[in-house]
Structures are given as C-alpha cells and as structure tokens.
C-alpha cells in the first residue's frame, strides 16, 4: 500500500494563525497533541485505503492521520478553516472538500469503496452524523471520533440503563460500539462546558437485518418516544391483534430490550404491519 507522507511543516495545535472558533458551527478546536495522536490511533486502517475526517478545523488531528498508510480526505463547512488547510496542508490539495457533511453526496468522493470516518465532531450535529453513517454502513467498516461524553456513552450503552435509547439500539444493531476514553474541556479552545468522549464503531460481519429495516427503525423510535410505557401501550399505533399483544415481550419497557430483542419484536410485528392487519 502506498505510504502517504505529509509534505508540510506541521502547525502546532496551539498555533494561533487566525482561525476563529465559530459558535454557530459548534467549533471547539482541540489543542492537545497527545489526544489528537491518540484519536488517530483509534482506527485499525485495515480493510480500506481511505479515511474521511469530518470538521478538521486547523488540522490538529489531520496531521496524524496523514502519517498513516491511508489516503486522507477532509470535509469542512467553514471557509476560514478550509483556507487555513489549503495554505498549511499542501499534501491535501484536491482532497479538501468544502461541503456540509450532512447534505453532501459522499459517492462523489467514494464510489463503491470502503472507507473509515473520523473526527472531532461538533456537538450540535453529532447524532445526525451517526445516523448518516448508519445509512452508509455498507461502505463504512470503521468509525471513530469525539462526541459530547453523554452522547458517546449513550451510543455505547447496554439495555437496562436510563441512558440507553434509540441511538444505542440502532447503532448496535450494525456496529460493535466501544467507549474508549474521556477528554476534559481544558484541552479545547474555546473549552466546552462538558466533558467529551471518544468512541469507536466497528461494523459487524453481518450488518443486514433479518427483518424489514424501515419497520425496525420505526418500531425502535416509536417505543422510545414513550419509554416509560410498556410496549403494549407505546406500540398501539401499529393496531396489532390482541393475541399478539399478549406476548410477554409486550409487557416490557423499551430500555429492557437489547437490539436482538428489538429485531425479534419487529419480526413479530412485520406480518401485521405489512398486511395492514
């Protein structure tokens, strides 16, 4: 595999070269080189040759990604950050994409290729980033990065806990989720008001569902929208027959079900939901 060596003078994480953090973009620039290097090491770089970094800012994580045996692409919505990257990271020429990740069609960069996603994600769109990754999972075997700690914990949480919810179930149905380490506010500029957490998602060998996928998503979301109720009550919208609603699983609350049980629940509902019975 080709070794992509960085051809630039590495800017320091504390380099004050004029990129201003913008509140409306949720920007908090990481200033700790060791943590940046540690985040870059969370990916295995196996089974794919390209990595997409979301929101590189001034490139504190980017420079460590460029040292890996991979082709790095970055996507950044902030024009000022893009200009900084173009001036300081000449090796990235042609692979700096000034786009909104949530709206951009990634097939323009990656056709049918496998690639990983990494980043220090803006808190305000981090859950939306995960949902888009789930949609694109056929091409994304690995995903890692920094979230608000509470969100990262929720994604990795197991059933039976209060923080376990929609994002936990949907993510864990397709990926193995690992909470890796916590990052304090003091290593950001400006510092956020809460701790951050780094996680890793590794796609499961079998990442297709043995049930209707759209119905699975709908069942999970409907159940957790009234999480204090039993499934017998929260899933009334499906107009299920009385004999099915007497099944023991409908006496449980959503946080008591692991993703596999939600698959089984969807399989029970599927014949009735599709037929309209």
From TrEMBL:
Residues that coordinate or bind S-adenosyl-L-methionine: 28, 30, 55, 76, 100, 120
Pfam families (UniProt xref): RrnaAD
Cell compartment(s), UniProt: Cytoplasm
Reaction catalysed by this enzyme: adenosine(1518)/adenosine(1519) in 16S rRNA + 4 S-adenosyl-L-methionine = N(6)-dimethyladenosine(1518)/N(6)-dimethyladenosine(1519) in 16S rRNA + 4 S-adenosyl-L-homocysteine + 4 H(+)
Domain named Ribosomal RNA adenine methylase transferase N-terminal: residues: 35-205
PROSITE patterns: RRNA_A_DIMETH, SAM_RNA_A_N6_MT
Function: Specifically dimethylates two adjacent adenosines (A1518 and A1519) in the loop of a conserved hairpin near the 3'-end of 16S rRNA in the 30S particle. May play a critical role in biogenesis of 30S subunits.
UniProt protein name: Ribosomal RNA small subunit methyltransferase A
